[in-house]
Fold this protein.
Amino acid sequence: MLNILLQNVQEGTELTEVESVEKTLSIIELISSGGAAGQLIIAILFLLLIVASYIYFERLFAIKAASKIEANFMNQIKDHVSNGKIDSAQMLCAQINSPVSRLISKGITRIGKPLADINTAIENAGRLEIYKLEKNVSVLATISGAAPMIGFLGTVIGMILAIFELANAGGTIQMDTLASGLYTAMTTTVAGLIVGIVGYIAYNHLVVRTNKVVYQMEANSLEFLDHLNEPT
């Protein structure tokens, strides 16, 4: 009798230990459990994340380089123009590779013509510089909108697979048969939202940085035009 009680206590202890073991699942196991459809969508989202990261850092460094300009640049330009040293002003603009210097250089080439013509030339050059700064930034906006939709597509596919397995279960519900479809549904949704959020934040950050360079271009252009408009 004592042996039976000890055996029951031992079995209960083992059962408790088994129940207390928590099941863990790594990210790789979670993706691999999603089936071929889930893995394909995860691969697409991962590719979009790589593209978004490349565009973000490439544009960030380009915009950062475009915003660099010497603090005394405009003062030197105005001194050269006031003294009639147009060639020296052009050389100074050529030495500084930035959107501001290119705009001022365009304006210097129009000195002697009406102020409206100079302003038009600078505005046209400014549009070209803005287009260069915004190169491929629209792709980030597309990725930020498309990634969650691709993730939701995986969700729909996963739910269809789960319902299909449930329909073929013959009236008996087994969680193992639903696991693959449910994993596909959940993992693709999370992955799509992550890529979409990253793309959205990256896009808006680049827009803010680009706007700062545009304001810098406008401020220096207006300063140059005001100098030309000053009475001699």
The chain has one domain: 34-226. The two ends are 118 Å apart (CA to CA). Confidence is low (pLDDT under 50) at residues 12-22.
